[in-house]
Amino acid sequence: MEPPNEQILITDLSQELERKYTYGTANRYLFAFKQYIKRISYQAVFDNSYQDMYTYFSKLRKEGKNRDYIHTEFYGLFTAFEYICRNGYRHDNPLLGIHFKDYRRNDIPFEQLFSEKELRSLLNFDNRYKMLQQRDFSILSLYVIQGFTTGEIASLQPADIDLKRRVVMVLGDRAHPRTLKLEDEQVDSLNRYLIFDRPYLVKETTRALFIAKNGNPETIDSLHHLVSRFRKRFPGRKLNPKTIRQSVIVNWIRSGMDILEVQILAGHRHLGSTMRYIPPD
Hints:
The chain is mainly alpha-helical and about 280 residues long. It is built from 13 helices and three strands, in the order H-H-H-H-H-H-H-H-E-E-E-H-H-H-H-H.
């Protein structure tokens, strides 16, 4: 597709950034894009290569630009190139594969993570307490399908579940608020839990969605314990809420999902948080 003129693209990109980011972040990302055009050229936005971009950031380092400046410049340009690719103005993002040595990535244990098939196998189980079957399925599915944090699950309320729209609203703890689609089995399980099981389990007035066997709201510790019961299925590997969420996000990226969509689904406030999950392969 023939790219638009510079001013039209900048205006459209500005509106896209303002829709997805805070005012400050949108302005910083747009400034990075404008700076690149000023330093290089508008045509380079559509013609440049991985090597061109590597050279560009190498020059910024030689000019003495600090780590934060370079990373903001990188994320701003990465976001702009993703937008350009989605609109068909170029076929590749030339920043894919560029990583900075001073940016921490070794906290993601890629070789130890779980495939989507392995994660979904956790949903095949029988609970000896039948009244907890739907509750436990619902909790585990939010971990392995939507990549919830434990804090988000513990904070859920019945009002956050909209079964007619088939969505769950996440206010987030450290993550960004978002609305996520529910799969058919999740809708069915949550519906059964809310109608039949939760009223039986709850012993006092509470807004918590998930109730423990003792009638109190599920806690961070009790949710972690639920996940720990499945560790024996993967001997020698670390199965916990953190590695499950890491696996979900990496699997989204490996499936070819747009990195900005991954950012939204994961609830990351900053693109840099999502970039850490791009596998080295």
